[in-house]
Amino acid sequence: MANMNEKTRTDTVSRREFLKTSAGLAAATMLAGLGGAEMSGARAFAAAGASAGAGASSHGAGIPSVTLNNGVKMPRLGFGTMTLRGDPGSVADAIALGYRLIDTAMIYNSETAVGEGIQQSGIRREELFITSKLWKTDMGYEQAKKGFQTSLDKLKTDYLDLYLIHRPSGGDWKGSWKAMVELYRAGRIKAIGMSNATLEQMNYLIANGEVKPAVHQIETHAFFQEDKEYAYLKPHGIQMEAWAPLAEGRNGLFTNSTLAGIGKKYGKNNAQVSLRWHYQRGVVAIPRSQQHGHRVENLNIFDFELSDTDMAAIAPMNLHKTQFPEWS
Ligand SMILES: NC(=O)c1ccc[n+]([C@@H]2O[C@H](COP(=O)([O-])OP(=O)(O)OC[C@H]3O[C@@H](n4cnc5c(N)ncnc54)[C@H](OP(=O)(O)O)[C@@H]3O)[C@@H](O)[C@H]2O)c1
User: Fold this and answer.
1) Which of 77, 82, 296 for mutating ligand 1's site (highest number of atoms within 8 Å of CB)?
2) Cα 131 to the chain's mean position, in Å?
3) Residues 242, 272: contact at Cβ < 8 Å?
4) 3-state secondary structure of 169
5) In this prediction, what percent of the chain has a pLDDT beyond 90?
6) Catalytic-residue membership of 108
7) Where do the domains of the chain lie, and which CATH numbers do they carry?
């Protein structure tokens, strides 16, 4: 990013442009392109945002936030960018629609597109919550610092909101954590955490890591509910975050009859029921979509509530095993 004075000037102009363009674009797109159900949902989403802003803490366009164990606020719903490598337009559109948490990683090769999408959106950096992740090839103290800087350069930013060790399955991950603690203390990262860590690794960091992980990002969805992990993280004050919150549609998630039956009562589809389920469990979800209509749908989960009976009906969908064995 440019120096602070230049950035502040740019931000002021960008903010005005953003209000004129992206909010207007979102409203116009919804009015012009969406059917009645989606439009009324969009209105309800805006209303939910307004009330969250007045009461509970909210982020950006009204997505409620959770306060992490270090006081940093994180949106409870975000946008995943795996496979969106050359697609800044999707990121700009997601921001215009109201997503504020953008999840990327060095290994997705999407950081450049995310950086360009953010610039296209014109939104102020401070309104976003950007997550990136350190890949295996950047393990170790020195290499982690280099990897972090490369991510910042691609994203065209001078700090990250959240930085995770992506897959600590080999190499000097403790050295990486030490570097991340230093960057955190220097204010270059607002919160640090883990992804795909073992229980032993989490225990080690809680006891010896100097800074407790704020987030653990893991595979979780209706078919892999990770109840034990959930029960472990909660008392430690570590936020659980779902990757593949829609299981990428595997095992027939988008046509599953249990989810469809629940959704029918509320006029919602299986993706929306799934995302609402994560939300009511207190798990942050980061669904990805290359389709504008799906991005709208995935935001449109704040105008209905799953009953205890609905939640109980989803519990037995748990198959207690990963749907991504190729990544284990
Ligand atoms: N830490 C890790 O190891 C890790 C691993 C995997 C992923 N992640 C992160 O988590 C994010 C989300 O996970 P994911 O991308 O694997 O999978 P996902 O979000 O569970 O599923 C994405 C798939 O669902 C479809 N989809 C999205 N919304 C839909 C809707 N409303 N209706 C029907 N289909 C819909 C998308 O298709 P369309 O594009 O056609 O909408 C896409 O094929 C990633 O993008 C990445 O940021 C992290």
Assistant:
1) 82
2) 7
3) no
4) coil
5) 79
6) yes
7) 4-327 (3.20.20.100)
